[in-house]
């Protein structure tokens, strides 16, 4: 009881006024990282569509979809997404000195884990909604892929 009032006063005066601006500042890199995940998924699926339109090869389509399923674990392709979040390192250094925020690397790592998880969910959902083995009419495959991609991005 004797600590509650001073602690509440400290939070109200020294932390609460800054919370909105801190969240806005942190959300910039986080949002750009998740936007990059979305763009990467979109780009990869567009490449599958273009390749299929050129080749009309169902076997190759299946291979490309299998490669898409491995996208969340492809560190080279996912790296641009992760780099967007690395900007948090600089932003959190300022918070560390002002508000005693520790474990900056943990915050960045967890954010990157969520990005990978988002990509895992996107490719899994894509695979569930589109299975090349169930496509009888190859003329409609590219259209179907596009529709599934848009559904996943929604």
UniProtKB/TrEMBL annotation:
Name the UniProt record assigns to this protein: NIBAN protein
Signal peptide: none
Family to which this protein belongs: Belongs to the Niban family.
Gene: Fam129a
Domain Niban 1/2/3: 9-154
Organism: Dasyornis broadbenti (rufous bristle-bird)
């Amino acid at each position: 009881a004797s600590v509650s009032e001073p602690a509440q006063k400290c939070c109200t005066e020294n932390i609460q006024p800054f919370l909105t601006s801190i969240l806005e500042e942190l959300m910039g890199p986080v949002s750009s990282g998740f936007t990059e995940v979305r763009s990467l998924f979109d780009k990869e699926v567009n490449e599958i569509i273009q390749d299929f339109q050129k080749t009309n090869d169902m076997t190759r389509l299946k291979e490309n979809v299998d490669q898409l399923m491995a996208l969340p674990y492809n560190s080279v392709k996912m790296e641009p997404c992760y780099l967007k979040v690395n900007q948090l390192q600089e932003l959190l250094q300022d918070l560390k000195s002002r508000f005693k925020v520790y474990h900056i690397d943990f915050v960045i790592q967890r954010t990157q884990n969520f990005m990978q998880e988002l990509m895992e969910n996107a490719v899994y959902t894509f695979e569930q909604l589109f299975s090349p083995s169930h496509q009888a009419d190859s003329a409609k495959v590219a259209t179907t892929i596009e529709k599934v991609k848009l559904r996943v991005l929604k």
